[in-house]
Design goal:
The protein has 172 residues and is of the alpha+beta class. It has helices at residues 9-24, 38-42, 74-93, 157-165, and strands at residues 46-51, 54-60, 97-106, 116-126, 130-138, 144-154. It is 29% helix and 31% strand. The relative contact order is 0.18.
Amino acid sequence: MKDTGAHTAAQDADHNARILASIAELMALAPNLVLPPPSFLALGMEFCAKTEDSLSAWVPWRLEFTNPLGAYQGGMLSAAFDNVLGPLSYMVARRPCVTVDLDVNFSRPFRASDGRLLIVGTVLSKGRSLLHLTARATNANGQLVATANSNCLVLSDDQVMRAISAPPPGTP
C-alpha cells in the first residue's frame, strides 16, 4: 500500500482508536495484559487498518531510534514488526499468544526522508496452538524496506493464568 498522503490526522487517530478498542476486548481474557504494550507507544506507532487476517500500522521515523549512519536502527524496526504481529496473533487466536521466533530481513534503510513506514502483517497459517505470520514494511514510495516472519504460540488458559499471576519484573 503506497502512502498517498490522502489520509488526515483525524482519520489516522480514528482508525487507531477503533483498532485499539477491538484489541482491548481481549482484556477480558486476561485483565493484567497491557494493551497496547508500552513499546508500541514508545515507538510512536499507530494502527491504520485491520481485516480478519491482517493488521497494519504506521511507524514514524524518529531520531532517537537511529543508528550511527542516521538510518532507523534494525532492532527498533524488529520491535515495530513484533508490535504489529503480536496484536494480530491475539486478534486471530482470540486469546493471548507469545512470539516463538521473529526473523527480519532488511532491504533498504529507513531514513528521515521516508517520514514513516507502513507495516502490514498477515496470517499465513493458523493451527490450534501455532500461528505463522508475515509482515512487510514499505516506505512512502511503496518500496520494500524490510520483511518479517514469525511463529506465535497460542497460550492455553493455564499458561495465561501463570503468566499474568507472576509478579512484574523487578518486584521482590
